[in-house]
Protein 1
Amino acid sequence: MENLQSLVALACRGDREAFRGIYDASNDKIFRFLLGQLGDRELALDTLQDTYIDIWKAFPKFRFHSDEEFWGFIFTIARRKVYAARKYAQKSSVLVDNETLEFLHESTHPETPYHFEDLALSSALEKISTLSREVLNLRYWSDLSFREIAITLDTTENTAKVRHHRAIKELLTYLPKTYVEQQFI
Amino acid sequence: MRNLKLKEMSAHEKASLWNSIEQNLGTQYKPFSYLLFWSKFQSRIIATSVAILLLLGGAVTASAHSARPGDLLFPLAVAGEKAQILFASNTQAKESLHIKFAERRLSEIKNLKRAAGLVAGTSTVAVTSATTTNTEKAAIKLARAAHGVDVALAELIKTRNALVANGSTDAVLIIDDIILELRGVGGGNVLITRLTSSNEKDGKTDIKIHATFTSTSTATSTFTGVVKIDEKKNGAKLELKSGGVKTKISLSENKQKGDNEKSRKDNDREEDGDDGDEDDDKDDGKDDDEKGDKKISICHKQGAEEQSLSVSRNAARAHMAHGDKLGRCRENTPHTPDTRAPIISLFNITPEYSSAIARWQTNENATALIWLSTSTPVDTNIMPTITRSTMQQSHQISITGLDSSTTYHVVVASKDASGNSATSSERSFRVE
């Protein structure tokens, strides 16, 4: 993507308008990944902001060679921010009962029952391991290729494919049988 | 999974988030490069190192600071002075420092001469002779003083060349004075080798001479000159010329100051540097004061106030000795606070696919603020949707992530450096 390359080149030299272009081109992808990983919309928005600030700071050290490497660079930073946000959330977590949680949820998002409409799938996604959920988020919500996922996870493309395969298998074990039959058969 | 509907960010959320991100971007981190750093700051690193050495070097530093020309640590003292000059904020301050250090050289040489038992000449002609002392110790002191004169002169000539290269004419004139005085203080003998002609008129006698000047060091200079005797004023004046520089020495008793340590001297740089007799004749016809009357601008300090003055060269040196600066004072225009708000003009919005571009002009450099809303009137009391802190007159801001088939209302504002702000009227546009 020639346009992306020129935007990155300008942003690396401190051009804020070019960085705005990169933000426009990437915020949806990163936001979906963060939301999928953190499961909290407000936290995801905060983390997204921090992610872009870190990307801006790290840009002078980045050299554009390919789109895959660019997305790998972006998502590596996003991934680090997810870990930091989780750590922070654990430290500052407040235990609330289900009734309070339901009330809070309805009062803040009355029009949306949850982040996903498909409750069976969202429930299964919450149960699988963090690593599997990460691979699936990157693959399906952020639309990354296996090469881009491999760079993000600092591994090989084959390993990324294997992890993805295992994640799908793990996800299927948590989905109701009827759901799987309805969706895939 | 791709078909799952996540609650995506709205256009307003995206715009607000970008606004927050932009405010926190700050300056980008630049990877550190030793080579780049060295090439860019080489001179300052060296100067800073010398300055640190001078500040923290303890005994060495103290010794260097009090080193006199010709001492082992004198180059270190000079390096410290150069560091000070390098760090001076402007050309005026640099020139003042050059002169201050040149005066210091002169003072050091005077001290050296005093230590060697040589009193600076009661007039420049009546200089002391090396034969006044016979002891070995005195001879060593004398040789040391002579060496100091040479070192100090070499340093001052370097300073003069640097100032000439920078075009600092006034500073060069003062340095020339100091060099001449230093040569005079250096001591030596003037030997009149030949009387070429004499002219007597109205009680005034001019005697043209050839002379050699032998300093306490081994340097010997040849001069042509004229002795002017004014019987009415009971005074005499000796003018010597060499190397493009003319020295005038008053020999009259009533004009000498105090203990005669300092004789009046005036010098003019020759136009062509030629010291032939023809030029002497031409110069002799001119009034001394007319030639030596070039005024120098200085910035005179009086308490907290500063005042620009035009003074003679000798007076300029005296002024600078008590902290005045060479050159005119900076104009202190009274500060009138800016209370005028910028004027917004040519404000328009161009809708595009899922975005729009807002353009407007301000009559002075100002920031840009945009409030975007789907409802009207737009509330400008809340945080702006987009903020650009760059100060400019022509504003063009892209509003992205807009929902299609939606009518938006926009208000823009600009704030100048003094905090005066102007707000536009509300505009509406529809994204198709």
Protein 2
Amino acid sequence: MARHKYYYNPKTLRYELARFPWATWFFRVAGVAIVSGLFFYGLLLLVNRFTETELEHKLRTENRALKNHRGTIEYELNNAHAALASLSGKDKEIYQRIFLTPKAEEAEDTGDAQDILQTDLEGFHQVADRLISQTDVTYAKASLASWNFAQLFWPKKEDVSELQQYPTLIPIQDFKLSQFVCGFGEQLNPFNKLLYHHEGVDLEAELGAPVLATGDGRVIAAVRQTTPYGEGNYVEIEHINGYRTRYEHLAEINVQRGQRVQQGQVIAQVGMTGEATAPHLHYMVLKNGNPINPILFFTEQIDEHSWIQLAEIGKQVKQALD
Amino acid sequence: MARMRYHYNPETCQYEPIIHTGRHFLNQTGRFILICLILAFGGLAYYLTHYPSVDENQLTRENHELKWQWGELQNEIRHVSNQLRALEHDDDDHYRVLLAMNPLDPSMRLAGAGGHAPVLLPAEESVSEILGAYDSLFRLGNRIEVHEQSLKELEAEVAVKERQLSTRPAMQPIDNRQLTRFNSIFGMRLHPVYRDWRNHNGLDLTAPQGTPVYATGDGIISFAAYNGGYGNVVYINHGFGFESRYGHLSKFNTQAGQQVKRGDLIGFVGSTGVSTTPHLHYEVLYHGKYVNPINFMYRDVKQEEYNKLIRKAPTVLPDNKSSGVERR
């Protein structure tokens, strides 16, 4: 049994039982906590100082390696940047020399979400909202037009086959926008670099690439010429309603005069015969003998967005290929 | 002074003051330290088994930081690589097609010797970031090297193409404003002097005596002298199989061996040789065969466009008193 402690109370002149010393014990416990905490921390530092775990070793070597090689990588990367800049300069120069028009700046690929985050979000929202509402309206209109169109044409098969008689295809297989070199209208003559009227479009393609009939029709000319000027080997097809298409500078011709051809049929191979400065197809659409802009007929294989881009490219004054 | 404390001693039946001796104090301190140590060790044991060490923490933080930086580096490498890919794409699918060259084999694009292999310690090789970065830089270096070569090839080819375009006869040798008559008959025709049917190998452009005659394409003057029926004639060798001839000149502005550019003034209209009136007899030959010059004139060119070509020529007033004029 614990011994009781007493104290002398001078007022009562008696020994009285001392109360439990809460304060003392509080300070004792606190002292223990603080001192053991300090010990703990000291020991921890000691252990840390004199031992190395496997993980620490691994991390330490890895960090050292990462730090040591960062400089080299940065240096090499800078070199690569410089080399790329010079290559890109040369590339632009070559483009300029080939097309006589400066190369359009490629839009920097916006892989950095940073740029988007830093943009004025409020303005962005406004633009986005407007675009969305416009898109909705356009979509509604398009749906209506599509429905009307379907009502008009879809059930009648003969009408669909009539559509095929218009030159609505792009005469090159797997057409990409970059293959569209020179548009219709005022363009630069490649030889004397003067403006002249370019009566078709120049579609770049590899030598021997297949040329497709853009619509059903009858071949009214399949001419082979070896002159260093003019259209070279060419095919002319007569379609419906006074439309004709012409395919010039061909390497090989697979059809004969008078032959009937189907839309999409391979009629020839791309070449550079006649007055061609590069392998390409000079494609013309004529209505009653007058050349019209063939882009207007590229309605099937490309979407509206690409088509608008195509029209923009077509407006640029560039060096034609013949 | 601290208040004294007392014990009740039942044996003596007295309250006795509690007196702390030094020994008691030592005892207490020792106990205190022991308790603290036990607690500290216990805590340490628990901590070490359950938490990473201080160094580990710090190293891990550092490691994360470094890896993030390396990630950025790799992103940048990827960015450069993508830009290069765009250039390669243009090169292969655009320029080479247009220049009728074969595209580079994709395997060849990787087979350059531009980058250099990294020297790594065994411990460093285990760090995937380092190895990966060096690897991608190595490949990037190779591709850059190959692309450089490829662009050089392209440049050479473009230069040839440019020469081919600039040398080709591609304009009317006389300004439309001075042209009074254009005789477009090429082939058989009744000869105005001999009065018989002969092949006309060129076109006749009638213009006043002394009208400037321009070179229709870049080339070298291979002949500039009096030559029989041609009278004073200039031959220009354009290369790539083309030659052009300018007959019946009254006066030369060039001599054989001279380099000329398209639009340069080479002579003046006259009526030398077999000719009835001052005019230019213009011929174009392709690989030694006469071709119809009409295909090389682009007559529909607008005047201001045409002026661009002859702007380079020195402005010379028509000279009507030229020597060497022979009329027949």
Protein 3
Amino acid sequence: MSYVLATSAAGGCHLFSGCGFPSPSINDFYFTPFFKVGSVGFGKPGLLMLLSTALVLLFFWFAFRSPKLVPRGIQNVGEMGILFVRDQILRPQLGKRGEKWLPFLVSLFFFIWINNIMGIIPILYFPAMSKYGYPVALAGMVWFIYIGLGIKHQGLVGYFKSLTIPSGSPTWILPLLIPIEFFSNVLVRPFTLSVRLFANMLAGHVLLLVFTLATWYLLTVSAGALHSAVGVASAAVSFIVTILVTALEVLVQALQAFIFTILTATYISGAYEAH
Amino acid sequence: MQHLVHLHHLLYVAAGSSPVTTIHVQWIGALTYGLAAIGPGIGIGLIFGSTIQSIARQPEAAGRVTGLMWIGFALTESLALIGIAVPFFIK
């Protein structure tokens, strides 16, 4: 975004100067790194990732620093968060036997959620999950956990049987069914888990960019006296849409964190027993 | 202006008129992803709709039904997500 703003503002770009609307592109997702170690750069996404990790860690550390039987203040908020994950995600999917997965699911949910929220916080304004590498790391971790857990609980053959052969399917269809189910349950699962999060965050960020850029752009158009009324009116409409899109993003950010966590719980529950 | 010019060309193509020079690949990609999203869109609607119906009929089965709903949702949406990823694999 800063790239677009800089290049277009330098040329005095607006609707009637002929350079057109500086529509956001994939370039807006690349930042000049603060420093480089070898070929690996550390830039804004990495910084936001560290920041959200620290936020989640500090929040839960402060909330449960000295836990009381009758919770007060911040401990109430922390317990609400944990109870939400337990009652909405863990209990329906895993039941009581999955209680030991609570710390993992709580940290997964809040880590993804806080990371996504960075997309609408002023100054930060970037969801790190819209860089594909981050969701891939999370989905890869989940993949290794549920495959490893399944092999541990059902054995290598048993787990792959339960993954690839749905119960009650007739024998003659198995040659067709096994490759499809293997493809969908072993190969596609981590892929969709990561792409779902990535694509939603990318699309949301692009939507916000389109309307914030349009607001700025239409206001610069209205700098010329001739078109000022129309320009300001259009900018106002665009600004209102920006606010509405931000509200939608708040919903999508929470929903994506929820879906990621609940699917993780579902996959883990599939590792405990055959469906 | 660049984008308007391309749109102009596309409209000419749609109308079957002559001054056609280029159609940008991005336009085809955007159009095709729109097509790819129709099926999963209908599918996800059906999944959530029937989950709501079944919970309304039998509220005590809500836990089991929502579990199945998330599995079905993930499977159906994977088609739309593959649709996003496919252009990156085509050179």
Protein 4
Amino acid sequence: MDSRNLEKAMDIISALLINEEIHRDRGANRGLYEEYLSNAEVYDMVHLMAGKMNLCLYEYQGGIYVSAGEENRVYGYSNEELKRLLGLRLNRELYLCYFLIYQVVATFYHDSASDTFIEYMGVEELIHNTDSAFAKLTADLEILVLKEMEENSFKTLALLWEELPLVTGEEGTGIRASRNSKRGYSKLVFNFLVSQELLAEAEERYYPTARFRALITNYYEEHRGRLFEILNREEEEDDAADQPDSGE
Amino acid sequence: MTGTHMMLHEIIEEHHERIGHIRKYYPYFKLAETSFTQFKDGKYSRLDMGYILLAVLRFFIEENNFKEKEVLYSEYETFVTALLRRDFECYLEEEENKELVSYIFDKITNEGKPFRYDYFDPADRKQKTIRMRLIKSSIQDGAVRYSITSEAVEFYLDTKEIKEESTISVEQLLLEKLINSQNFRQGAEVVRRINNEVSRLQSRKNEVLRILGQDVFEGVRAYEEFLDTGMRWFEEEQHLFRKNSELIHKALERAAQDEASGEYTSQYYRAMDDIYALELELKKAVQKHSELLTACTQLQKQADERILKARVQSLRSSFDFRQAVSRMMERDRADLLGELIRPLANLKIRKSFYLPNLDHLLTYRPDQQETGEKIGEQVEETYIYEDEAIEQRIYDNFEILLSELFHWLRQKKEFTLKEWNGYLEEKYTERIFRNGDYYTFLIHICLKEEYRVQEVRKNPDTFFEEIMNAFLDKSGNRLYEDLAFAVRKDSGVSLQILGLFEVTNLIFERRDMDGQP
């Protein structure tokens, strides 16, 4: 093994670990990208190291992007940590934020195989899309009371969302991230996505970044089987639990 | 007959192509028609969106194609504000102006979505959709920048400059004439226009690639159209470039001769600077043109790859975001969203102690602090179903009745149900007789005529005995371990309870350990 190659591979990994951009056309790490692409040994080492650290690497339009994937205790966030990062207190608030983020993803992408036709989205569009997504659930919400439901139920989220005012009196013309209104929540989520380099903001319009595109088209594609399994496996378990005891 | 056939062919087969040409006008009319009537109750309906649109497009062409830079939102804002003031005398408060300019931007970009135009394609007998954008965006160094699309440039040029064949060729022919007439300065202008057209084709090439990525069928059409209108002229253009380069070369040679012969009055010598400028521009154009040529041959390869990829992808399933969320909703498991969202976050690299926490320690006020709710391990909740609740109630009630019965059996050798009922009524009031479990208890106890606790402990064989066993386990004392009793029906004597129920009287008799009276 060439120690120079090892050094280059380490440079690439450490740049990725501190969330630095490695891109063919821009930034200080152009040389690293060249090395990654043209030197097979470096390429293999980078992938080996990333694999051992349970990281997923993706190439997209001249850039290398990384995701901690699921259940990465060192580099991935837990629910608790994300809750702190978002400034939330309750689980249902976190799940609502997850749902809003999911709406952003689903607005830009129908599935992981195709590219997006939509260039940007704003707070109002997110609110509208979330309203429509909850519409089916909110129809029979009148008879439900928040404390009767579990915190991880979509009905809880729908009720929480439904009870929020569109905007609070204090907000004035600008939108501030908060837990007091639908606009506040949307802004909170957008701010988070911008901080995670998934969206870029210009005049309250939010554009998907290359990192966002790279993760959507690769991560979900690659982990499709596992994700389906999670949904289906637990579904079978639930079904089994619902079966009456045969008494054997 | 042939005439009719040709006419029909033209109507049906060429319809798609015609629509393709019309589509670039579609956003203009869509925007011009309704834009301002819906905004702020038509307060600004005197503004002409058509005019504003054309002005904005021209501004983008100036910035993108002439100055070769992309536009920031603030630059667009300055331009439109100036336009509104100059042409419509629209002087507004800063906030309102911002809102109006932003509204115009949203309209021109169609709120980030492409303009969609549905039409019927008679050749395929299908409803089809064409999409078009005027402004596109890109992110550089974290800032969003805007540029005009090649379709919008084409639309803008179509409104005045009619384009029937390669603009580059036409411009080159013009250049040839200008060089021949020794108008070098004008020639440089023409070359700049050629450069512009080359840039437009370059950007169109990128768009074709993008469309191929999104919709392979639409992409293949765009690619073929690009081959037809752009690439087929390449050979001719290269030839003209060579010819013009030669002409300039000759002009330079003549200028050099003039200089050598000291003929300072010659037109060639006087235009020396212009010729150099023209040569420089032309070299740039030739360079850009060959770059485009290389890029276009690459495009052929990339297009093939994309088509192949699309073929492969159409066979395998992808991750459908909407389907996944509806599945989660069906199962009502919002926590699963975390599985899909958490991997999107950046790597968690803050490992050290978070310093602002020091402040929190110093200013900690327990009562004012909101306590965070913990997400524990994902342990499944224990549900109590209705039948389980009922079962529990039966157990509880049977335990009470058993405890009373055993208590009596220890005290009395023999007693009747009537006597026992009297005791129960005294202790628990007559409400006990309204409890269904009391009657169930009687039915269960009558299933066997004799009970021996020792045997029940070893081998409980009825539901009632199981409950009895559980009761003895729970009570923990061994008082009743030797108990045995018989239950006999006192035939002919029935008891009226509350005037509602009728039960046969029973006789309970304590036995010894072996079951003997």
